[in-house]
Amino acid sequence: MSRTNDSGRRDFLKKAAAATTVTVAPGVVLHSLTAQAEPRTTPVTDKVRWGMLIDTSKCAEGCTDCVEACDRENGIDLVNKPEGADDALWERQRPHWIRQVKLKDNMTGRITVLPMMCQHCEFPPCVDVCPTGASFKRADGIVMVDRHICIGCRYCMMACPYKARSFIHADVAEKLTHAPRGKGCVEACNLCVHRLDNGQTTTACQEACKQQAIVFGDLNDPESPVSKALKQYPSVQIRDDLKLNTGVRYTNI
Amino acid sequence: MTGKRSITLSAILVSGLIFGSGALVAGEAVEGTAKADKLESCVEPTDVMRRRHFEFIKHQRDLTVRQGIRGSKHSLAGCVDCHARHDAQGKPVPVDAEGQFCAACHDYVAVHIDCFSCHSTVPGGK
Lengths: 253, 126
What we know:
Strand order of the largest sheet of chain B: 1-2
CATH class of the largest domain in chain A: Alpha Beta
Number of helices of chain B: 4
Number of domains of chain B: 1
Number of strands of chain A: 9
Helix content of chain B: 40-55%
CATH architecture of the largest domain in chain A: 2-Layer Sandwich
Oligomer: heterodimer
Helix content of chain A: 25-40%
Strand content of chain B: under 5%
Radius of gyration of chain A: 19 Å
Distance between the termini of chain A: 49 Å
Shape of chain A: globular
Number of domains of chain A: 2
Largest sheet of chain B: 2 strands, antiparallel
Order of helices and strands of chain A: HHEHHEEHEEHEEHHEHE
Largest interface: A-B, 36 and 23 residues
Order of helices and strands of chain B: HEHHEH
Number of helices of chain A: 9
Structural class of chain A: alpha+beta
Strand content of chain A: 5-15%
CATH topology of the largest domain in chain A: Alpha-Beta Plaits
Largest sheet of chain A: 3 strands, mixed
Radius of gyration of chain B: 14 Å
Shape of chain B: globular
Number of strands of chain B: 2
């Protein structure tokens, strides 16, 4: 084990060295680095905290680009209605990593549409209530379910103020290699963790949004686009009264 | 080499014994079409793999889920990628199909593996 770790560290240092030489060259932007990035060999650390800022004023009613991209990326579109299941029940219970939420101000009649997913709280209630430790927060701030030890009790679903989690009620025939999924476990948005672990720095929803309503990045890096945007624009955490310090924030609600 | 080859061979023999010769059902699978069929040994020596493969992937799953370490040599995705055979049309045959790499031994000893109720059984996705 320690041997594996050492070689991992060596690889990391080698790559880090290579990366530095690239950045030294003039005019090279972050994107060219991420394109050649490889799967990570070292544990994630809390130096990074992933998060996003969503500009709801750019969200058009009826647009489902981010939801569809998420479904494709994470194999959610491969989950079919169980045979004989009631249509209405299926609509209520089918897995969603992003929900579209419509808000209406009854006084003014103003309508706001926004994508609602796991908010990747710093103090996640789902982790508090999980009896097995399956619901956990990774060092880099991503709140996830370890399905190997999830017993499907759904306490986390009840605890989540954002209704972000889904339960898989039946066997799933087809699944993607990077998105395992099976009957009896809870799941939710993981900020496309497979992409991040393989060196990419985008999420499927962010990439799919033609309006560029979603800015994703490292909240701990003051130079990241998301940190700059958060500094520049007024933003809110939904249910900030719960003091969860969410990683996903919204503007123009 | 022989380790690999003999494991496959014995798996085939075993399933042959159990199911009768015609019953290598996933039968469309063509021998020699898995990447592993062409390799000398697995990611560890064959005797080590036989004895400890479950420890390797169990340890790896925690590193991957909790620490984000991917692409390591003990990943289950790696098992599937390398050990899945293809049928005559080049379509991958699930590793947990009757007589295939994972199922052959596990069926024989009646060990129920739960990997594939969630994980993909063919390389690269669906």
